[in-house]
Amino acid sequence: MPATQSPRARRKEDARARILAEARRIVLEQGFGALTMRRIAEAAGYSPAALYLHFASREEIARALGSAGMRALLEALEEAGKVADPLARLKALALAYAGFARAEPDTYRLIFMEPAFAAAALGGKDEAGAAAFALIAGVFEELAAAGRLRAGAEPSALALTFWILVHGTVSLKLTCSAFLAPPEEVLFASALDSFLYGMLRTEPGQA
Amino acid sequence: MPATQSPRARRKEDARARILAEARRIVLEQGFGALTMRRIAEAAGYSPAALYLHFASREEIARALGSAGMRALLEALEEAGKVADPLARLKALALAYAGFARAEPDTYRLIFMEPAFAAAALGGKDEAGAAAFALIAGVFEELAAAGRLRAGAEPSALALTFWILVHGTVSLKLTCSAFLAPPEEVLFASALDSFLYGMLRTEPGQA
DNA sequence: TTCATAAACTAAACATCGTTCATGTCAATC
DNA sequence: GATTGACATGAACGATGTTTAGTTTATGAA
Prior knowledge:
Mean pLDDT of chain A: 88
Radius of gyration of chain A: 20 Å
Largest sheet of chain A: none
CATH architecture of the largest domain in chain A: Orthogonal Bundle
Oligomer: homodimer
CATH class of the largest domain in chain A: Mainly Alpha
Helix content of chain A: over 70%
Structural class of chain A: mainly alpha
CATH superfamily of the largest domain in chain A: Tetracycline Repressor, domain 2
Number of domains of chain A: 2
């Protein structure tokens, strides 16, 4: 591939990026429901039909936003993944995950709560999603290697349960915030405590 | 209130019921996305405008469907709630919950995964939702009364965690079925084991 | 420089959506 | 029998995503 693309391809890429940037801004400012082809077009300085020269459909734009969101989530998790102690790292990962969902609720919905997108994001196609899960799974493998898991506890199953726990909390908080009054910190403290107690060979301590 | 309503009110109620029945059929057969005012109207033998004499909006129809779905979920949970042993009852409740979501995925989405409805369903207004949660909370209070919970474990917090675990599993299964390959039974066995280990004073046994 | 060709873009339209409004119809009441 | 009010409709309005046909613009060769 050439070091610098042809000016053609370059401008095409610019157009895609500008469209996605405006789309993202609209979602952040007005919610996913306001993401309209006509609105995107006007914001990006195009006619509605021009968007179809760069994206096949509104769904493809949404999918691209979801992909970018997943990469942002991965970055947040990687930052939290630097914590040394495995148990403290789990809590940091949970809080980073919840922080992303709170900062960009519509993006989180798009990635993990819409039928069409989640499958694509996690079905193996999206490498950021795979990397994010690997980050979580790594903690449990580390714990297993250190012999800190109770007998019969499988690291991959625990990682899945951890993710289910965090996603369950976040997703209910997103849709039933009235019912799920306590903040994530409290919910996680309670949920992770039960989880860690059941998982570990020894008591989790106060990490 | 009169034992039998006036024929006026009676026909009005019939119309409402017929509209809701057709709406439910459309959701079950073609998914929530196919729930269109014009489609409902045609199925119920009305013009589109006539629906607005019985419901304020499409959203109100959807809300009514969600309410009915919540009552159906409550019935399923009540059936599972008859199991005598508390731990076996928890597993039965989880499987009944997952069974409802598998049988009516669009209804489950509507109740617990759509922004506008979940709040109304669980914000205290929906008594079926409150009863369903009380059914779960009761198990943990029963365990607490029997002194089977570990020190410091609060029944209401455990009930919430249990619900989060089950909902997290079900909702991810609904959106990321490709990634969450194992059936609910396996997922629950793993997740509930960790949970129960952490919750109980003694080991959970093989309930 | 000129011209042909392909890419980029637009204006207008199509089908569909939720919703509203003026109009009509028909049964119950005075 | 006339009147009133609930019930229902047809036609429309403003949006939506998307397509088509036509127009402008940039590119690469003569």
